[in-house]
Amino acid sequence: MAGLYVHVPFCAQACSYCDFHFTTKLGDRERMVDALIAELKGALPAWRDETFKTLYFGGGTPSVLGAEAILRIANAAFEGAQWALEEWTLEANPEDLGDAEVGRLREIGVDRLSIGVQSFDADVLTWMRRIHSVDRAESAILSAAAAGFEHLSLDLMYGLPTGGADRWSQDLTRACALPVDHLSCYILTAEPRTLYGRQLAAGQAVAPPDDTVVQEYDALCSRTAGAGFAHYEVSNFARAGGRSRHNSAYWNGTPYLGIGPGAHSFRNDTRWWNARSNAAYLKRAESGDFEAQRQSEKLSAVDRYNEALITGLRRIEGVSPADLLQQTGIGIESHANLPNLIKTGACEWVEGRLRIPEKRWPMGDAITMELMG
Ligand code: SF4
Predict the structure, then answer these.
(1) pTM of the model
(2) Whose CA is nearest to atom 4 of ligand 1?
(3) What is the CATH number of domain 301-370?
(4) Is 97 helix (H, G, I), strand (E, B) or coil?
(5) In whole angstroms, what separates CA 69 from the centre of its chain?
(6) Most buried by CB count within 10 Å: which residue of 79, 101, 158, 326?
(7) Ligand 1: which of 16, 18, 91 to mutate, most ligand atoms within 8 Å of CB?
C-alpha cells in the first residue's frame, strides 16, 4: 500500500505568511505538467510491487492548472502503477472553483477538495493577501457540494496578529455551518522569509499573546466538537468518514512517492527529495535526468523512532509501545523522562497506547522532544 503526492508549485499571488515552495510566474505551467508526467513515468516502474491507494495534489495551488491538466497527470499515474484508489484529493483555492470547474473536477474522479479558505473575515483576507472574497469562498464550497463532492475540507488559520478571538469565533460559526466533513486549522507561525516574518522583525506587526492563542485553541476544540467534528490530529478535525486517508497513511509510516519540485518520498527506511527549485527541476526534466537534482538519506533506527513519535504523538491514537519496539528496536516505556511527563499530565496511557491529551497538543512539539531518542 502506498500514496502518491504531486506537488504543483504555482500560486496566483503570494500570501503574506506562506513559506511553501511556489512561484507566481504561471507561464511555465504547461512545461511543468510535462515535467511532472516525465518524472512519474520514470519513477513508477520502481514501485510496481506497491498498490497505490491515495492520490494527493498539493502545492502551491494545484487548482491553477485546471481540470484537464490535472487529468493528464493523473492518467500518467494510473497507467504507470497498480491502483486501488480510495481517495483523490486536490488542494484548491476558492477563486478557481466556479460551477463548471468543480463539476469537471468531480467528473474526472477527484473526490475530495481541500479548499484554502483561511478566514471568513474580509479584513483578514486582505491582510493575508488572499485573492478571494468571503462570498467567493462560500459559493465555491456550496458549488462543490452541489457538484457531488461528499468530502470537502477547509483550511483555516488562527493565532493571527489581526482580528482577535471574536473574529476566530465567527470563522468557526461559519465553517461549522457549511456542508464540509473536514477542517484543517493551523496556528499562524512567522517564517522569516515571509512578509509577515519581515514585518515582525521590523516591528511593523505584533504577534498575538500566547493566552489569546490558547483561548482560540480552546474555542476551536469545543466548537468543532459541538458541530460533530472529531479532533483526530493536532490540526485536523473530521466528521464521520471525513478523515484524510492520504495524510493518515503518511502519519502511519506508509510509503509514499512525491513528484514535483521540493516533493519528498519515503520507502524502505529511505527518504529522498527533489530540489526546491522550479528551474532546476525543469532543466533536469528536459534532460531526462531527475536523479541529478535529488538528495536522499537513510534513516537509522533512532531516526525512525523519532519520526514515529513526531507523527504518532500528533494524533488522538498516540503511539503503541509494542509497534515502536517492533519497528525500531527502541522501547519508549523505559524512557527516563516518561514518568515525569505522565505525572504532570503532559502524556497519558489510554488502552495501552501513549498519547498527549488534546488540551496539551499546542505544546506537543516540546513534549515530544522530551521523549526523543
Ligand atoms: S498559502 Fe497557499 S495560496 Fe497562499 S502562497 Fe501559500 S500555497 Fe499559495
Answers:
(1) 0.96
(2) 15
(3) 1.10.10
(4) coil
(5) 22
(6) 158
(7) 18
